[in-house]
């Protein structure tokens, strides 16, 4: 039997594999599976785009008869319920694997230990909790939606050297260089949805897509907090809504007067452009996030602007912060960031620091963000 060091080595590989399809497997999590026998990797699998087939089935199909008496390393407990496909626990049993090593048990009430029970009942050795902290970090978005009924929220801010996120009336202002901007596009590619406020949508006219070569199809759902339905029909978001979904979060009309007739007219025009209008008071963020979770959105990237960032922080709904600090100042008429590197919100811990050219990147996690209570 493999020792602890070998188990950790293969589980680390399974967890890395699981990251490949982040943001592309909703409503299922992206899971990694590696089939090993006598210290040799026979097959690998990661949850397919759209959520099926599951990682275990892909790896078992690749391994074939080689899976018999082998060990399967899986980043999340194999499913035990019949959905659109039979349970992965049954597939592992049928394949004749001798041992299954699991990083994280599944909090889904349809599983929640039942997959492990099925394997044990079939005489398969099971070990759990291998690299659990790393596994739960990789599965943080899925765990957040399952346990807390909301998406895992990443707040991204690009801040100038003098602590500004932009300049009043200037539209988009380049705060960081091209390498840092490509990193942001990579983050978009692994997120289910991206959110901005209407101020940013109107001032910057952003597209909010992933434009890295080869990853264009991984653009997230785009969400705008737009209480009064002011999203411009001529802007990039509305014009591209049929290619990449846009959800406009609007408030309820106050009365039945002429102003409300204009509101309904704007709604009809956005509908005609392919923009989905969802009426939910944008100021009630917990309810909004619950609604997004009910649609299978597990990871939400909040990109702007300063007031939206502050509102998520004030509501205690930020789980991770990606802070990019540029080398140049913005100066006069700058829009102040809600925080800077030296003055971070309480309860966040810096996890890593990197340099992208002249720009500084820092990642912070809320102290309990990636490990929701199970």
From TrEMBL:
It holds the Pfam family RibD_C. Its cofactor is Zn(2+). It catalyses: 5-amino-6-(5-phospho-D-ribitylamino)uracil + NADP(+) = 5-amino-6-(5-phospho-D-ribosylamino)uracil + NADPH + H(+); 2,5-diamino-6-hydroxy-4-(5-phosphoribosylamino)-pyrimidine + H2O + H(+) = 5-amino-6-(5-phospho-D-ribosylamino)uracil + NH4(+). The keyword Oxidoreductase applies. Keywords: Hydrolase, Metal-binding, Multifunctional enzyme, NADP, Oxidoreductase, Riboflavin biosynthesis, Zinc. This is Riboflavin biosynthesis protein RibD. The keyword Nuclease does not apply. Zn(2+) binds at residues 54, 79, 88. In the C-terminal section; belongs to the HTP reductase family. In the N-terminal section; belongs to the cytidine and deoxycytidylate deaminase family. Its EC number is 3.5.4.26, 1.1.1.193.
């Amino acid at each position: 039997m493999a020792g602890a060091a070998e188990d950790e080595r293969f589980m680390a590989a399974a967890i890395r594999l699981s990251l490949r399809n982040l943001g592309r497997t909703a409503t299922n999590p992206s899971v990694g599976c590696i089939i090993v026998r006598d210290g040799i990797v026979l097959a690998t699998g990661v949850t397919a785009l759209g959520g099926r087939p599951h990682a275990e089935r892909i790896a078992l199909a690749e391994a074939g008869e080689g899976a018999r008496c082998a060990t399967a390393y899986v980043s999340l407990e194999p499913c035990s319920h019949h959905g659109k496909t039979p349970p992965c626990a049954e597939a592992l049993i049928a394949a004749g694997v001798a041992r299954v090593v699991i990083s994280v048990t599944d909090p889904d009430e349809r599983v929640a230990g039942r997959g492990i029970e099925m394997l044990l009942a079939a005489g398969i050795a099971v070990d759990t909790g291998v690299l659990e902290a790393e596994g739960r970090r990789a599965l943080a978005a899925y765990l957040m939606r399952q346990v807390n009924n909301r998406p895992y929220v990443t707040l991204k801010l690009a801040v100038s050297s003098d602590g500004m996120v932009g300049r009043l009336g200037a539209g988009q202002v380049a705060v960081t260089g091209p390498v840092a901007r490509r990193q942001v596009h990579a983050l978009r590619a692994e997120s289910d949805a991206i959110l901005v406020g209407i101020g940013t949508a109107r001032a910057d006219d952003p597209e909010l897509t992933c434009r890295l070569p080869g990853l264009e199809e991984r653009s997230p759902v785009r969400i705008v907090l737009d209480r009064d339905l002011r999203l411009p029909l001529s802007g990039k978001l509305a014009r591209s809504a049929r290619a990449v979904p846009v959800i406009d979060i609007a408030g309820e009309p106050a009365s039945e007067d002429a102003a409300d007739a204009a509101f309904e007219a704007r709604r009809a025009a956005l509908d005609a452009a392919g923009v989905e209008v969802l009426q939910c008071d944008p100021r009630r963020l917990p309810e909004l996030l619950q609604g997004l979770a009910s649609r299978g959105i597990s990871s939400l990237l909040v990109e702007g602007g300063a007031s939206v960032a502050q509102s998520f922080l004030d509501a205690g709904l930020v789980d991770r912060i990606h802070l990019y600090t540029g080398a140049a100042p913005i100066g006069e008429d700058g829009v102040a960031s809600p925080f800077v590197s030296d003055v971070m919100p309480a309860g966040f811990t810096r996890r890593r620091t990197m340099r992208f050219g002249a720009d500084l990147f820092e990642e912070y996690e809320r102290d309990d963000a990636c490990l929701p209570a199970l």
